[in-house]
């Protein structure tokens, strides 16, 4: 087994285990969780954008140049993220106070499963290209997944699931990332052009997540002191990606 395969498999297992972050909700006070989540989202935004502009795009340019075809792959990644989010946003159909499990919960899980599958494919593709960039991509995915999984876990609970079931189904949904990685590692080793498609696709996906989901969340905070800390954690996320790029 190639070293890149080992890195990819370990990385996707770690990303999948992030879905268990719901456990911490069970032992955390709501106010404490919300305060930490604010800065975690800021850090995740910086890490994702740092990974895109300091790792992935330079790798694309160095390997394939940057022409119309690459731009189309990036747009495809952005549009795919938009469609997946449209599906997940149907969660707002949920009516508070229902005692049974709302069917929309399972739609959320399906949407997350697709998203995790794509994350897994991206991890596999990037590691086949460059191990250090694979590590940076894994870190950015992890810091995006933590606030997302906390939110998903909360939604499932509010939709009528027990905590144990919500945690279990959320974890099963996360395991689709393993499938995505496995497919890319097997196919990618015989089809080198696959990385040339998936890496720009990931760029579009990440840009959409940062611009459409995370940055609007950051703007909800208007208190000056908290906004300053938020900006610093945003820079810290970029800083970690810069250190990895220079290293």
Automatic annotation (TrEMBL):
Cellular component terms (Gene Ontology): membrane
Keyword terms: Membrane, Transmembrane, Transmembrane helix
Superkingdom to which the source organism belongs: Archaea
Protein's UniProt keywords contain DNA repair: no
Transmembrane residue ranges: 6-26, 38-58, 70-88, 124-146, 167-191, 197-215, 227-246
Subcellular location: Membrane
PANTHER family given in the database record: ZINC TRANSPORTER SLC39A7 HISTIDINE-RICH MEMBRANE PROTEIN KE4 (PTHR16950), ZINC TRANSPORTER ZIP13 (PTHR16950:SF16)
Name listed for the protein in its UniProt record: ZIP family metal transporter
